[in-house]
């Protein structure tokens, strides 16, 4: 785990994750490889973000003996993808959480104000009873993630975790100020935002690189 000033942030310094992330940062990595890395890192981050899920002992009979063994207990999960880049992480995360329901929130950044504008919102009707994992690859200003989590809380959700590939300190700070109850799990904490709201050094526009629209 990396040392930093944010009590709400977990940076996962795993060699497999860092190795893939470095290749994602490389501007010569093509769409096919980039998409595969997003899925794979998404899967590994899902493993980390579910580390503290509660378990309960259930009775299981092995071919040798009967004993009590742990199974996941408590709230069921819902993944919420912030469109469109969040969808790149979804497949990998669903491989580890195949029973999770999935919501989508469509937000785009107004290029002049960098403020989020919502164009789509569809979540499961029982979302308030679920533990929600929000996927947003790039936590830049934090405006989109804050807006998405505002909407989820309006729907009665009380248990939320945010998973990102990269974060800028500005975004983590915005989350801490507006949603201090939400833990942010990331593969790296980068240096800063540039004047256009891009993470530096970052990896560019995650949506464009996943979908080849650059
Ligand atoms: N969104 C991106 O896709 N990349 C950034 O660097 C910032 C926001």
Automatic annotation (TrEMBL):
Binding-site list for 5-phospho-alpha-D-ribose 1-diphosphate: 84, 109, 136-144, 205
Catalytic activity from the UniProt record: UMP + diphosphate = 5-phospho-alpha-D-ribose 1-diphosphate + uracil
Cofactor stoichiometry and binding remark: Binds 1 Mg(2+) ion per subunit. The magnesium is bound as Mg-PRPP.
Pathway assigned to this chain's UniProt record: Pyrimidine metabolism; UMP biosynthesis via salvage pathway; UMP from uracil: step 1/1
A GO cellular component annotation in the UniProt record: cytoplasm
Keyword set, alphabetical order: Allosteric enzyme, Glycosyltransferase, GTP-binding, Magnesium, Nucleotide-binding, Transferase
Domain (Phosphoribosyltransferase) ranges: 12-213
Activity regulation information from UniProt: Allosterically activated by GTP.
Protein name, as recorded: Uracil phosphoribosyltransferase
